[in-house]
Each structure stands twice: as structure tokens, then as C-alpha cells.
Amino acid sequence: MEKKFLRDLSLDFPRGELTSLLGPSGCGKTTLLRLIAGFEQPTKGNITIDGFQMDGVEANERPTNMVFQSYAIFPHLNVEENVGYGLKRLNLGKDETARRVDEMLNLVDLDNYNKRPAHALSGGQRQRVALARSLIMKPKVLLLDEPLSSLDKNLREQMQVELRHLQRSVGITFIFVTHDQEEALTMSDRTAVMFEGQIVQIATPQEIYSRPKSKRVASFIGVMNFIEGQLLKDGDQNTTVDAGILGNVKVNPDQMPIPLNSGPVTIGIRPEMLTLLIEDQDRTEFEIGGVILEGAYFGDMTNYTVQVKGLKSPLTISMRNTAGRRVLEDGESARVGWGADSLVILNKS
Amino acid sequence: MKSNKNTLKVFAYSYLIFLYAPVLLLPIFAFNDSTIISFPLNSFTFKWFAGLTQETYLQESLKNSLFVAISTSILSTCLGILASRASSRYEFFGKKSILSFLILPLFLPEIIIGVALLVVLMQLGLPLSLWTVILGHTLVCTPFSIAILNSAFANMDMSLEEASLDLGETRFGTFKRVIFPMVSPGLIASLLIGFTISLDEFIIAFFLTGTETTLPVYIWGQLRFPAKLPGVMALGFLMLLLSLILLLLVEFFRRRMNRTTDDQVNVQFGNLFKHDKKRTRDSKKNHS
User: Fold this and answer.
1) Has residue A115 got a pLDDT over 60?
2) What is the pLDDT of residue B215?
């Protein structure tokens, strides 16, 4: 048997919110989803949905519905039969069933697809059918297992917006599993970052991005420059960090997602928090000189790798290509500017 | 290059003629108005077919054969369902070796199976009857059922069952509404192939039959009487037709099974038949 384990895991999913479970593959996020759905049983611990213990409650009795990664559209049934599948046991009668199915198809923008056979659906349409089939059951919790991973990039981005919109309009609690950081950030009210069966941070996307609790979270979500430094406490409100070449910087406690003692720390700074001061009159709170090693042009952005004297590894800096701003050449010397509040102080590990 | 191709063509055609010419003699002599099976042919006749209706032993053995074939196909399909369901859904110790042993009778000479079963039945003191024939045939047919059903069950995505449960359906309801419709072409193919194999199996039936004989055993008995030979030809022709129809049905249902599951992952093992083009293309698409 494959090993599946989650440990010391305790979290609440607020009603009506979209919480995403984000982590690399094999971190246990799908297992957690399957535990909630009732496809797997926990060896220890319990799950409560809307105040009801789910211990010993079979998957078909739970107020949850799942959108599978493969969508699991019944291939021998057409769209209408797929969407109405779960209603059959409720004995609603033909007319009521048809009415609800039409309503759902309308919600997912598949009007008049009723008789379309399952094999004639595109990836995006399958995804909508899977959604409609689950939502028609009016679940308390909708579980989505990487629902967008098999769609191509453009469709995926479109579906992210639609799914978010849909979640707001139906007001159902969504638990969304993904390994795509951008997707988690765009879609969720809250994101839980998982590594090796444990939740390492759960917060709003903004907080996770700007105040990651560890180096690992920081580098899993987006790009982060790391600089070695020393923490020097000097009072309750303000703390000074000796950032080596960057000098001594005052930071406030909010910039330390976990409380730290004096001593060696790692200082993190996002590439877009650094700027290159191109014109002579450009000013920021702090600045330091360096040399452009390489510029990678992305159209709207240019990502520079800049070697700053006194730092072991080069900094990554991303700059928007706004009107009139020129793209710097490799080998050109440059001034790197930054602000004290853009630093995140992390455990040295 | 061209002559090479032609040689291959000649080889292929002569191979086919060698393979099927003897079978073609069957209908020729079945309609020939002469008791001697040799050329030149006499006039065309239906009398050998008409004669079949007079043979009470023949009808008796036909009834026995149908009984054996139907029982065998149902039994081996049931066993096949259990084995292939277990192999496609669960992981357990020794799974691979158990499956190999289940498939093994496919490669054992039937005469060995026949003799071995006879010895065992004698030791157990069980009287030989149609039931012992059914037992032997089930042993031979089950591997075929497993091979067919295995691909039917393995082609089914596990999440389809979970989706059904998730939508509030019970386990039994899930079987009825999802699993059964999806594997039914495989079930029918398995029933038909079991029926066909059992219907014309001779060696095991010959060893294990009691006083009631099956059709092939009856035919073998008839071969001793030269006068009965044209009748046997007529009977053989009818059986050939029946077998062909059944095999075509099997192929039809097998293809339908592949179509209903063509977006799922492909066969595990024991694909008894060649891949059709569509299927190979789909599997390529899936793996890429």
C-alpha cells in the first residue's frame, strides 16, 4: 500500500469561504480532501462539518461533494443524466429534476447541452459538468481536487475567475486543492500551505505572500531574495536588523511572522520590492550599488539578476516596463533601491 | 523491393488457403448428394440437414452441450468478475502470482487437465456426469473470462465509483448505475466466449462425460460409421456458423466496450485480440 499520512493537523474552514490547500505533490493535500469527503478514514482525530461529527459517516451520507481531478464524468451518460445523477435518489419527479438540471446548466453556462454525450465534451465543458453535478446537490462543502490542472493555460485562467465568481454567488464553502501557487493566490480567501503532511501556514493570500513564516514557504510561493543577517533587539516596538552590507535597518514586529530571538536570521525580500534606480534623481529609503549580470525581458516585466558587492548570491529584481523606462544592459552598473518595510525577517534555517 | 512485397503476398495468401481450405470442405460436402466424402461432387441436396432432425441421440447431445455451455459461461464469467474486480481494485500480497496461476490453464494441454481432473474425481468418488464436464470447462474458460473482464474493470476509472458514492448513491446503486453499464459489454463478451469454447470442446468432455454425451463427443462417435459422415459434415457446418456468429458478437461487444471507456487508461494484460486502430491512437494520446 502507498503511504499516506497527515500529522498534527488541525484547521477550520470558515463557512462560505474559498480555502485552498497548497503544497507540492505528495504533501497530503489530496488525502486531506479525501478524508473530508469520506473516501478515506482517519486513523486518529476527527472531522466535523457544520457541527456534525463525520466519524463513521459514509461518503454517500456526507454533506460534501467533490469535483475530481479527472472530472469523473460518467462516460455512458449524457450531460443531463450526469448532472441529474445525484437527484435520482431524492425522487423529485421528472419535471422538478429537469428544472433543477436546467438551472444548473444555466449557472455553469452550458444551456442546451442537455443531450450532449459525455465523450463529445471538451475539457472545459467536462469541468463545468462536474461542477454542476456537484453543486446541484447543494453541498455544505464543495471539494475540488486540482480541478483546473488539466486545462490549458488560457482556459485555466478564465476558469479561475469563473470559479471564484461562482463560489461567491452560491456562497458554498469551497475547499480547493492545488499545487499552483498563482492559482491559490488568485482564487482563495485563505490559503493553507502544506508540506509533508503538515500545515505550515494558513492565512490570506496577501499575508502568505508578504509575510511567509519560513524560508520554505517563501520560496515555494513566488521568488524571494535571501540575505544573511543578525537580529539586534533594542526595545519592544522597534527591532534593528543588521543586514550586513545593507546596513542596520529598523523593522517592526509585524515583519517577523514568527517571534525570533536575537542572533543570526535570514532576511527575505521579494524581487518586486527592490527597484533599480535608473535616473539620477530617483530616490528610495535605502540604496546600494551593484552590476547587472543579466536581464530577462518578459514584455510587461524585466527580471534582472544583479550582483551587489558584499552579498554571496546575486539579487533578483523585477521591474515593470513602464513608459519611458529603459531596459538596462548586461554589465551596466546600477543602484538598487529598497524600503525598510519590504523586509521579512525569518528563522535562519 | 517490389518482388519482395509480392513474395510476402503469395506467402500470406497461401497461408490463409492452407488454414481455411479444410474448413471450406465442410459446407461443400454438407450439401453433396453422396455418402462418400470425395470429389467429384454429385448433385446439391439438403437431405443431410433434414436427416439431422431424425437423430434422437444427436438432439439429446445437443441439449446436453447447450446446458454445459450455458452453465460454463455463466460460472466462468462469475468467477472472472470476482477475480478481475479484485485485481483492478485492491492491492494484496501475492496478487501477481495468484493472477498468473488463474491464467495458467490457458497454457496447459487440455489432455493433461482432462486426465488430472478424471483422476481427482475418481479419487473423490464423484460420479461422472454433465456437471463434471461443466467443472472441467469452467476451469478452461475462466482464464478467458478473466482476461476479458480484467480489461473491462481496469479501464474503469476508480473515481467514477467514488463520484457516484459522493453524489449520494449507495454501493449497490453504484454497481447498478455505473459499474454494470460500463462493464456490460465485457460481461457479454465473456459469456459468449465461454459459451463458444465450451460448445466445441472435445478432450475434457470426452474424459469427464458420463452416460450423457456432449455434441463433440457424439460427433466423434459417429465418425466410426462411414454412412453417417455426410450428416456429421452438415452438423459441423451448422456449428461452424454458430461459432462464427458468436465470435462476431464477441468482437462487436468488445469494440463497444472500448468505445465507452476510450478516454480511460488502457488494458492491463491479456488483451486477447489485436488492437484496433482507433484504440491504439487513443492510448497514444493518453500517454503523451
Assistant:
1) yes
2) 86
| Set of chain A residues whose Cβ sits within 8 Å of the Cβ of B182 | 75-76
Q: Return the H-helix or E-strand segment holding B229.
A: helix B229-260
Residues 6+ apart with CB under 8 A from A19: A13, A173, A174, A175, A176, A188, A189, A190, A191, A192
What is the predicted pLDDT for the residue at A236?
A: 62
- Find the helix packing angle between A94-107 and A123-135, rounded to 10°: 130
What CATH code is assigned to A271-340?
2.40.50.100
State the Cα–Cα distance between residues A224 and A235, nearest whole angstrom: 28
- Asked whether the beta carbons of A267 and A243 are under 8 A apart, the reply is yes
Q: Does A70 touch chain B (CB under 8 A)?
A: yes
Judging contacts by C-beta atoms under 8 Å, the chain A residues touching residue B168 are 60-61, 86, 89-90, 137
The C-alpha atoms of residue B271 and residue B254 are separated, in whole angstroms, by 11
Contact list in B for residue A88 (CB cut-off 8 A) is 169, 177
Contact (CB<8Å) A74/B178: yes
Q: What is the ipTM of this complex?
A: 0.78
B261 vs chain A: nearest CA distance in angstroms?
7
Q: Which helix (H) or strand (E) holds A142?
A: strand A141-145
Cβ contact (<8 Å) for A75 and B264? yes
Rounded Cα distance between A44 and A52, Å, is 17
Do B163 and A68 make contact, defined as CB atoms within 8 angstroms? Answer: yes
Mean pLDDT calculated for residue range B85-99: 85
Cβ pairs bridging A and B (under 8 Å): 68
CA of A76 vs chain B CAs: smallest distance (Å): 6
**Per-residue pLDDT, B226:** 76
pLDDT digits (tens, 9 = 90+) for A136-180: 998 999 999 988 888 888 888 888 888 888 888 888 899 999 988
Which CATH fold topology does B55-287 show? MetI-like fold (1.10.3720)
Q: Strands A263-269, A344-347: parallel, antiparallel or unpaired by DSSP?
A: antiparallel
Mean pLDDT for B87-98 is 84
Where does A18-210 sit in CATH, by number?
3.40.50.300
Indicate the domain borders of chain A.
Answer: 18-210, 223-268, 271-340
pTM for the model: 0.73
Arithmetic mean of pLDDT, B78-90: 89
The per-residue pLDDT of chain A, averaged, comes to 86
Cβ contact B234:B48 at 8 Å: yes
Angle A262-A264-A268 from CA coordinates, rounded to 5°: 105
Is residue B114 a contact partner of residue B195, using CB atoms and an 8 Å limit? no
Q: Where are the domains of chain B?
A: 55-287
pLDDT tens by residue, B179-232: 888 888 889 889 988 998 898 888 988 888 888 888 888 888 888 887 777 778
Q: Is the pLDDT of residue B1 over 70?
A: no
